[in-house]
Each structure stands twice: as C-alpha cells, then as structure tokens.
Amino acid sequence: MLNNYEEFTENQIKVLERFVTSTTGNVFVLRNLPEVIKGALFSRYSRSTLGLRSLLLKEFILNDDTAFNAITGKQTDVDGTEGQAAAIQKAQNFYDRILDGYGDDSIGELGGAHLAIENISMLAAKVVEDSRIGGSPLEKSTRYIYFDQKVNGEYLFYKEPVLMTSAFRELYLKTCTDLFDTYGKLIPPLTALIEKGFPKDPQISKGAYTAALRAKVLDCLRGLLPASAMTNMGVFGNGRFFESLIQKLNCNNLAEMQEIGRRAYQELSKVIPSFVRRSDPSHKHHKAYAQFLQNMHQEIRHFAGKHAKEAPALTTPGVRLIDKDPDSVAKVAAGLLFSSSSSGLGELQEYCRTLPEEELNCLLEAASSARENRRHKSPRALEHASFTFEILADFGVYRDLHRHRILTQERQLLSCDYGYYTPPEIVGTELESEYHSAMESAKKAYDAIKLELPEEAQYVVPMAYHVHWYFHVNLRSLQWLCELRSQAAGHPTYRLIAQEMARQVSLALPPFERFFKFVDFDGYELGRLGAEIRHEEKQKVRI
After folding, report:
1. Which of 108, 123, 397, 505 is placed for a possible disulfide with 239 were both Cys, Cβ 3.0 to 4.6 Å?
2. How far apart are CA 441 and CA 63, in angstroms?
3. At 153, is the secondary structure helix, strand, or coil?
4. What is the secondary structure of 29-45 as a DSSP string?
C-alpha cells in the first residue's frame, strides 16, 4: 500500500470525512459533492502538485468564489433547493473559468448526471440512445410491462403536434388506438393458448412460470405497438455526452426531439451547468454545429437526388455479411503477439502471413481456449478484424440490438415498405386474422401520411414492421454481442440475428469460429423460464 504524505488537522479531517471515503489512504472515493464541483475538482487536479483532498480544502471548501457551502448544503437555506440553485449560479463563472482554462473536451467527462425522460415515444428513445459513447441508457421493457393501460380514457401514445394539426389527425389517432386495442384484446387468448401448449411443470414454481409466460406473450404482441407508444427512460451520462446529445436533439427535424432537447438542457443546467452550456441554442458553438449539420445534410440530399440510383435492398428479413478483411486473421494474430514481442506491428503482420495454418490456429487458440464463459473478455487484438452487416428485421429487434454502442450503425426511416414479422405462435390460430388486419390498416395510414410528412409518418409504424440498417463492428465487440444476444432468455427474433452473424463470420473466416464458442444456437419455447428460475433461487438465498 502506498503511503499518503498529506497531513491534516483534526478540524480538516472532520470536514473532509463528509466528502471522501478515506482521509488517510491513497485510494478513496468522493461523496456528497455535486457534479459541478467534482468535475471542476478533477480538472484542476491534473495541473496541481496537491493531493485531491488538499486541493478540495484549499481551492474549493475555503474559497468564497466557489459558493461551496451553499452548493453542498452544509448551511441550511430557508429556500431549500432554490438557495442551492442560486449558489450554483453564483459560482458559475468560477467553474467555467476552470473548465475553459484547460481547453480539452475530455474535461466534460469528469462530471455526470442521472436524467429521467418520461412519457416519450419509442421513436424518441432510439434517437436518445443513438448517442453512443459516455451515456448509459435504460428503457422501459416491452416484455415485462403491459402497454395496454389508459389514462383519462386514452392509450399512452405520443400526439405528434404536426400530425395533430394536419389533415391526418383523425387517421393518426384512430390507427394508433386500433393498434393498442388489438394488442390488449389478444393478450388473454394468447396467454391461454401458450399456457395450453406449454403447461407448467410441477417441479417449477408458479412465480417463475408466470413470469416466463408473460414475457413470451408480450414478446409476441409487442409488434402491434406503434412507434408513438410512450415509454420511460433513465440515462446516466457525463457532461460531454449530454452536450452532444442535446445538440443533436435540438437539430432534429421532429418537434418531439427538439422539445426533449430543450427540457434536458433546462434540467441539466441545474446540476451540471458548466458541462452543457455549449448546447444552449444561443451559444456560438451550438450555432456553428447546427449550421454544419444543415449544410451537410443539404449537400448529401442534393447529391442523392442527382446521382444516387435506386438499388435493390434486402427483400426478405435477415442479415448478410457484406464486407470483411481477408487479411484480418494475420492482423489479429500479430496483435496478440505484439505486447509479448519487441518487434514492430507491421513486421509481426508480415510474419503471421507466412505462418503455416496449423501454427496460426495454435496462436488463436491460445487466446480463446481458456475462456470459461462469455463474460471472459477476449484480448483487444480481436479489434483488428472488422465486419459490416446489413440487416432487415422488425423494429423490435432493432430496438434491442441498437443498444450496443461499440460499433457503427445507421438506419433508414421507419416504414411499412418491407413487410412485417408475424409471431409463429399465432400462425394458424383465430388470432392471426386480427393481427394481420391491424398491420394492414397501419400500412394504409402510413402510406397516406408519408406522401406529405415522411418523418412524422414514422410514429404510426408498428414495431413488427421491418427496418433496414447496418452494423460495422469489430470481432471483439461482435463476440460480445452474439454471445449475449443469443442466450435463451433473449427475444427469439434477435437471437436469430445474433446466431446468423456468428455463423456468417465463421463461414467466411473459419479461424475465427473459436471466438464464438458461447453463442447459443439452440431454440427455446419459454426462453425466459430458465432465467426466472435462477432469479427465484437467488432471491431464496438472499432471504
């Protein structure tokens, strides 16, 4: 254990104990400090000879300019949170001066916040989650929560303001309402149907079986929910993430995204104002960013309209590998050798290209044979291999796979142009005709609206309709995605996508098959059942 060379008086120790987990050790955690102070403290820390605790005392706690006591609540304010907000505002110039003084955007990663975003559409949730790095989103689940509840006699779906003031108002309201009606109507009969087909094993608890049954039913019917269906999100992110997110939301063409951006900026400014100030629409950085986006999109649309030719896309649901590097096996092998060698990477790549297949396989096997489960992360050398996949699958699958952030992905607008997914559980039953009827009615509404309002028309698209997107991903990230998303508890449709990506890479480059050894290729009737049983067993142990 390293020694701590700082010495504090008894009074200083009493003060510090409130804000650090240890006043003597060289490893400790900050606590009871607002994000604005933690971020400024760490940014100042990088250019100070003082230890963090000494710095906290000298430049923050004992500095009147920081309004430290008021912000941390050490002194009781009559006006409570309003007094704290006023103190933060008072100290704003001080913190901005510290942050601006370093001129490094990474400083924005030193403070963060938990942001709740409630009653937004599923379409908006995807826009929020599209900001990948620096944020951790969590969204209301469609497999554990029933979405058929009403408030004041109305289903919970977003009333898009442009549509609500257009000639499509009644069509939009009726289509979304009918989709929710069908969703709610089919829950009881489908539950009975699946229960009859897969009766409860006497050895399995009622709680685990009921939870797995509910998940199966809701997985089947989630395709009826329109993209306008309201959801709730929790997002933890650092300041840099939120600044970028708000800028993107403000520049989005849809009114809902702009409103979320405005409100997010308003609320985050109360907690981490120094980190999101550049996302204020009036700030020069935001204005420049907005102008850049506008010019870029305008040029690309012009080029597409003038030069790009329509080409056949995927016509049936599935995934196809459209790009790979045949030299990636040698590159991965060289990456594995690099840290244990004194050679250059280029020379190692040349060396690995000359290795006999048997020796190359032995090297790759050394990087995979010791893995005992999917949580054993493979070495970074796997990131030297990358693949591009084109996918056509229902919007529900996209929602699940979209959350993987260490990859590049883009989608086209939601539409009803590529057909829709029908759960096999309802095929050939009396429920099938009602499902198809709701889907076809939604397509008619979409086709009518998209002629005038193509972006707003997305809100009426049910989740079962297929969306066209691509993944560009390295082998290490793909390994994690395929092994995670193929597990028994996953939704059956995205399990197929994960399985197929692993298959196609293994066929294209057989030496990489060993890295997918925990991909689950089996099929399951009640996929959540095993997970629910394990959950109950853990609960019993805790009790």
Report:
1. 108
2. 66
3. coil
4. -B-S--HHHHHHHHHHH
- What is the number of helices (H) and of strands (E) in the chain? 21, 9
Q: What whole-number distance in Å separates Cα of residue 242 and Cα of residue 264?
A: 8
What is the CB neighbour count within 10 angstroms for residue 374?
18
Distance in angstroms (rounded) separating the CA atoms of residues 118 and 238: 20
Return the closest-CA partner of residue 388 out of 472, 468, 482: 472
Cα–Cα dist 439/461, whole Å: 9
Q: How far apart are CA 319 and CA 423, in angstroms?
A: 19
Tokens read off for 230: 């309201």
Domains and CATH numbers, the chain: 10-109 (no CATH), 112-306 (3.30.1360), 316-421+464-543 (3.30.1360.170)
Q: Could you tell me how many residues make up the chain? A: 543
Write the DSSP assignment of 81-132 as a string of letters: HHHHHHHHHHHHHHHHHHHHTT--GGGGGS-EEEEEEEEEEHHHHHHHHT--
Rounded CA-CA distance 463/122 in Å is 9
DSSP code of 232? E
Among residues 116, 401, 133, the alpha carbon closest in space to that of 231 is found at 116
Distance of alpha carbon 74 from its chain centroid, rounded? 37
Nearest-angstrom CA–CA distance, 70 and 97: 19
Backbone angles phi, psi at 524, to 5 degrees: -140, 140
Residue 56's closest CA among 73, 70, 39? Answer: 39
Helix, coil or strand: residue 474: strand
Rounded CA separation 326/527 (Å): 36
Q: What is the pTM of this model?
A: 0.85
Nearest 10 degrees: CA dihedral of 311, 463, 490, 524?
Answer: -90
d(CA 441, CA 496): 28
Q: Which long-range contacts (CB under 8 A, 24 or more apart) does 329-334 make?
A: 329/360, 329/364, 329/385, 329/509, 329/511, 329/512, 330/355, 330/360, 331/384, 331/385, 332/364, 332/381, 332/382, 332/384, 332/385, 332/475, 332/512, 333/360, 333/363, 333/364, 333/381, 334/381, 334/384
pLDDT in tens, 184-229: 999 999 999 999 988 888 888 888 888 889 989 999 999 999 999 9
